[in-house]
Amino acid sequence: MEHQSQYIHPHIKRSTFGSRFFKADVLFEDHLLVWLLSGETKIVHGDKTHVFGAGDTLLFPRHLLATVLNYPKNGLAHQSVVMHLTTEKLKDYYHKKQPAADSLMGFEPSFISFKKHPLLQSCLASVAPYFDLQEELPDAIASVKIEEAIHVVRMLEPGIDNLLANFAEPGKIGLSDFMERNYMFNMPLEKFGYLTGRSLTTFKRDFKRAFATTPQKWLTRKRLDLAHYQIREKRRKPSEVYLETGFENLSHFSFAFKKQFGYAPTEATV
């Protein structure tokens, strides 16, 4: 078994990755509350890498580009329970409870770890038996549990209303700055267009104006330059770098690297 998802409700699942690591560049439509049961998760966003281990609870914001790497650890598969905090559910929640007045500014969307907090562990424990019994969680109970989770994260993280109660879709933003911050994510051009508030046609047109080249050529060069820096200056191994710089497999990365720089990645530190 490499990957298995067990749903007890459309918005609550247990995800298991088997004996090998999993990597994906992701962009979620919902906020995700993730309880990490075993294994290790690394999330690369911008120039930062966040590391989460067994027992951590993670809030993964929606509409945030990131590279996720899940690893088995200590002989155990990577396993987590994931709860979707959907826009529909959050709108219903905030219709009944107004966002905190002092939370509506200055909160930078990012990954939040709550460590081993007893209130979140209690919330997890209350749904765990449904996975073990392989029974469906009734909608009424699921609604209560999701609302309970929202209550708890609001209590633990002051200012989070600015994230959870923000229902705006991406608007048109500066293309150059956005691409310079997010080029390492291996996403379809349609997704880059969506996040910058553009159709695919407009994205390609504006990109050509901004960078005087095509998105594909620019992205490849930027990713290779980043990989070269990580290997040569940071003394990292090619096998550690290629996934974090937007390449899907080591052989393709090595071929593109040698074509660009005239020598293999393994020779970059010589």
UniProtKB/TrEMBL annotation:
<dbReference type="InterPro" id="IPR018060">
    <property type="entry name" value="HTH_AraC"/>
</dbReference>
<dbReference type="Pfam" id="PF22200">
    <property type="entry name" value="ExsA_N"/>
</dbReference>
<keyword id="KW-0804">Transcription</keyword>
<keyword id="KW-0238">DNA-binding</keyword>
<dbReference type="GO" id="GO:0003700">
    <property type="term" value="F:DNA-binding transcription factor activity"/>
</dbReference>
<dbReference type="Pfam" id="PF12833">
    <property type="entry name" value="HTH_18"/>
</dbReference>
<protein>
    <submittedName>
        <fullName>AraC family transcriptional regulator</fullName>
    </submittedName>
</protein>
<dbReference type="InterPro" id="IPR054015">
    <property type="entry name" value="ExsA-like_N"/>
</dbReference>
<dbReference type="InterPro" id="IPR009057">
    <property type="entry name" value="Homeodomain-like_sf"/>
</dbReference>
<dbReference type="GO" id="GO:0043565">
    <property type="term" value="F:sequence-specific DNA binding"/>
</dbReference>
<dbReference type="InterPro" id="IPR050204">
    <property type="entry name" value="AraC_XylS_family_regulators"/>
</dbReference>
<keyword id="KW-0805">Transcription regulation</keyword>
<feature type="domain" description="HTH araC/xylS-type">
    <location>
        <begin position="173"/>
        <end position="270"/>
    </location>
</feature>
<dbReference type="InterPro" id="IPR037923">
    <property type="entry name" value="HTH-like"/>
</dbReference>
